[in-house]
Amino acid sequence: MGDEEKKVPIIAARERGPGPGRYGLPATTGYTTHDPTKKKAPAYSFGARLENTMFKKDCSPGPGYFIDSRINRTGRDGTPSYSILGRQQDPKAVQTPAPGAYSPESVHPQGERHAPAYSMAMRTRYRKRDSTPAPNVYTIPTFLGSRIPTKMNSASFSMTGRSKTGGFSEDLARAPGPGAYQHTKPDVTKRKAPGYSMLGRSYMPGDSTMKPGPGAYSPEMVLVNKKRLPSYSLGIRHSEYITPLIVEVE
Fold it and tell me: Which of 101, 134, 216, 217 supports an S-S bond with 212, CB 3.0-4.6 Å?
């Protein structure tokens, strides 16, 4: 009895076999992996291009060779050939000026004396002896103020800055003013008065307020006052090894 093998119960959830997509049936096309139980059709393949080992180069043109119809076995035929050239330009005729092309008023009368005519020549070459200063180069001393000791000038005054010592604004007492003290707020020692703040302006609903139309309501979706059929939903996926809950009912 002790030599008997202990039987282990088989759990069906652990026995997992391959799906239909894991089985590979032999192909019925081709030659190498063809199904041996099926009839095999003849198979053809494209051969490779053969190398030209007999000739080093092609000695004749291919079928696309074009033979000129004007050449025969004796040579080129003597049929005259014509072509269309471009249009030649018209030869330029003698262009004779019109009467309005002449300007007799700009011609000086013959036999009359000419008035003197002047022109502006170009700038001459600069020379060292021509380096004479211009009138605006000289600086004449000014007569404002007391700058020239040899000349008589009027009295000159200047305005100095405000002096901190001896002035009317000098702080002799060195005492702080009334604004230097920090005052205590009355709310600390006395009853605090109510404080108010200003909110934003609120508008009453008027004609310009957006109101829902009749089509915005869905009365058919209201099921509070109606009888409803039972509705079901999909729960979460549980493990395959969990034993279902069995409760004994008396």
Answer: 216
Nearest to 29 by CA among 41, 17, 11, 20: 41
Separation of alpha carbons 70 and 76, rounded Å: 6
Q: Model confidence over 223-248: pLDDT tens digits?
A: 888 888 888 888 777 776 776 777 77
Of 22, 26, 25, 43, which Cα lies nearest the Cα of 34? 26
Of residues 49, 48, 27, 47, the one with CA closest to residue 37: 27
179-182 LR contacts (CB < 8 Å, sep 24+) = none
What's the distance, CA 40 to chain centroid? 63
By CB neighbour count within 10 A (0-12 exposed, 13-18 middle, 19+ buried), where does 34 fall?
A: middle
Predicted confidence (pLDDT) per residue in 126-174, tens digit: 777 777 777 888 877 777 666 777 777 777 778 888 777 777 777 777 7
C-alpha 119: how far from chain center = 62
Amino acid at 241: Y
Task: Write out pLDDT tens, residues 37-71.
Answer: 888 888 777 777 666 655 555 566 666 777 778 88
The token pair at 101 is 């092309």
Residue-level length of the chain? 250
User: Under DSSP, is residue 71 helix (H, G, I), strand (E, B) or coil?
Assistant: strand
How far is residue 61 from each of residues 46, 64, 65, 101, measured CA to CA in Å? 25, 8, 6, 71
pLDDT digits 0-9 by tens, 190-222: 888 888 888 877 766 666 767 888 888 888 888
